[in-house]
Structures are given as C-alpha cells and as structure tokens.
Amino acid sequence: MIKPNAVKRGLIGEIIKRYEQKGLKVVAMKMIKMKKAQAEELYKVHQGKDFYQPLIEFILSGPVVVMIIEGPRVIEAVRSINGETDPLKAQAGSIRGEFGISVRKNIVHASDSIQSAEQEWKIFFEENEIFEYLCGFENEL
Ligand code: GDP
Ligand code: MG
Fold it and tell me: Residue 45: CB within 6 Å of ligand 1?
C-alpha cells in the first residue's frame, strides 16, 4: 500500500516501478480513501500501542493506493524493496530509505507473512478484482 503522504508527493509511479522492475507482478490495484473500519482492521495488531491512534488518523488523511503483488519469495522481496520500518535505518536504496524520514509516514505498507497478506487483501479487494496472467517470472519459481 502506498501511504497518503507518498500519494501527495507524486511517488505512486516511482514506487510501483520498483516492484515491477524487480520482476514482481501486480495482480490487483486501486486508489481508495480508506474507511476507518478498514484502517482499524489493517492495523489491529498494533491496537493499544502509543503510535496506533496517530497512525490511523494519518492513514485516513488522504487517498492511498492498495495493490496485490505476486512473485517468488514475494513477502521478503517486497519488504526488502520497501526497507526497514524506520526510514533512517532502512537500506539506502530502499523505498523508505530513499523517500522517508518519519516512522509513521514511512511511505509504504506491506504484509509481513502470507497469512497476513491473505487477511489484508480481503479488507480491500473482492475476488473478481484480482487478475491471473503470465508475466515471465513463472520460469524462476
Ligand atoms: P511495518 O510492517 O514495517 O510497516 O511496521 P509495523 O507493522 O511494526 O508497524 C506498522 C506501522 O506503524 C509502521 O509502518 C509505521 O508507520 C508505524 N509504526 C511502527 N512503529 C512505530 C513507532 O515506534 N512509532 C511510530 N510513530 N510509528 C510506528
Ligand atoms: Mg507490519
């Protein structure tokens, strides 16, 4: 997910480009203004933490771009492209490392496991919004 500050800064294309050029496949994508219930579901594991409420407010502060990405080792791949949670600790060439400073406004969100991905895509997508097509990385699986 591309967070609201990154959408406002015009980074949508720059971010999607990095997943595509790594060889990953975007199989669903849309821009939405998240509903409060969706934000609370997405971040339910952080409920009660001190950063939770400001994080929810930030995520609701403007449109976000949500997408489903497929590929070999996709969880690891996307999290490595994104970089560590704190942009100042994130690898220099990563998205957060290059474009972020604030931990809360750290440019992107990604699922941290296949199980959480399955829960998270259901918050934003219907089955018929997810596409199946061949893109080339299938040979690398
Ligand atoms: P992620 O999986 O790398 O996005 O990190 P987490 O799942 O741990 O946290 C979810 C989001 O909450 C992060 O992307 C940050 O935007 C925010 N967050 C996490 N830890 C902190 C913190 O210590 N301070 C603040 N302000 N925000 C945090
Ligand atoms: Mg997380």
Answer: no
Q: Is the CB of 20 under 6 A from ligand 1?
A: no
Domains of the chain: 4-140 (3.30.70.141)
Q: What is the pTM of this model?
A: 0.97
pLDDT one digit per residue (tens) for the chain, 141 residues: 999 999 999 999 999 999 999 999 999 999 999 999 999 999 999 999 999 999 999 999 999 999 999 999 999 999 999 999 999 999 999 999 999 999 999 999 999 999 999 999 999 999 999 999 998 777 766
- As annotated, the active-site residues are 109
Instruction: Calculate the alpha carbon distances from 87 to 41, 79, 95, 98 in Å.
Output: 24, 13, 9, 8
Q: How far is CA 23 from CA 18, 73, 119, 135, in A?
A: 9, 11, 24, 9
Ligand lying nearest the CA atom of residue 57: 1
